[in-house]
Amino acid sequence: NETDDEINNSTSLPATSPKPVKKKPIAKHELVFVDSKGLVKQSSPKHCQSVLNQLNQQRLSSQFCDVTLLIEGEVYKAHKSILAANSEYFRELFIEKGAVSSHEAVVD
């Protein structure tokens, strides 16, 4: 058994420098450059596909869905912003019916 004095007086090993931490590289498809007017300067198909996949996953799990469509007896949850961005009909409907702020829209 070593005494405290023997332990404290023992030769210590030289300190080693810590290994450098490797930073995870940012995938190119995660980068989008936007100019001062809000216009996309550079984009990647991988980024676009990734965004669409994430939005679809949110829809499938009913996350952030803010409108429910009843079409021929079938219920569909959706994102108003996606519908409005891709359809003049829905854009006008949501604005006319005040559905942008009321979270409710009735489609006949």
UniProtKB/TrEMBL annotation:
TM annotation in the entry: none
Subcellular location: Nucleus
A UniProt-annotated Pfam family: BTB
Name of this protein: BTB domain-containing protein
Organism: Micrurus carvalhoi
Family annotation (InterPro entries): BTB/POZ_dom, SKP1/BTB/POZ_sf, ZnFinger_BTB_dom_contain
Domain spans labelled BTB: 65-108
Chain intervals for the UniProt region annotation (Disordered): 1-24
Keyword list, A-Z: DNA-binding, Metal-binding, Nucleus, Repeat, Transcription, Transcription regulation, Zinc, Zinc-finger
Keyword Amino-acid biosynthesis carried by entry: no
GO molecular function: DNA-binding transcription factor activity, RNA polymerase II-specific; RNA polymerase II cis-regulatory region sequence-specific DNA binding; zinc ion binding
Main location: nucleus
GO cellular component: nucleus
Listed SUPFAM superfamilies: POZ domain (SSF54695)
